[in-house]
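Morning. Coffee machine broken again, so started the prediction first thing and wrote up yesterday's gels while waiting. Chain of 179 residues, entered below exactly as on the submission form.
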Amino acid sequence: MTTASSPRPPILPLDGSDPRQDRFAFDPVTQPWLFDGVRTRRILAFFLDLFVLAVFVTIAAVVIGILGLPTLGLAWFLYPILLPLVAIAYIGLTLGGPKSATPGMQAMGIEMRLWHGAPMYGLLAIVHALFFYFSAGTGLLLMIILGASLFSSTKRCLHDVILGTVVINSPRRVSMLRG
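Came back before lunch.
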């Protein structure tokens, strides 16, 4: 029984502009092709990126070694921070770049977006990578973070959910899947 003093529910538009109706830009029920094979491709992309990163770190190590001679060893103080420095630059410039994907992700046909569809930006890409690498230091936390993707319809890891990111198939791969 309603009384005159009880509030009425708001009248919502029927044209799809209701923010409660379109909560996420990527829906695994209506757009399953966006998530087809993403988990496997993400793992393969990770290993490709590790290889590319190892090449960049090796090149940087040689350059620092050579620069250490004329600087009487001062450049060699960069060795302890070389890997994090190169990795942060790599992630910030690639995942945080216009393609929202690292070279490994591009090779695998996937990209990372914000939950509402916007492309990644450098700072969030770096925080995302740091979140993953710090969690990788403990086996149990890594299993929890990666295990979350087994129960997610969008195949999102726990750090994806916390940071509001989602990995989807790239438009090129989607066009191949949808044929």
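The CA atoms of residues 36 and 169 lie 7 Å apart. Going to sketch it on the whiteboard this afternoon.
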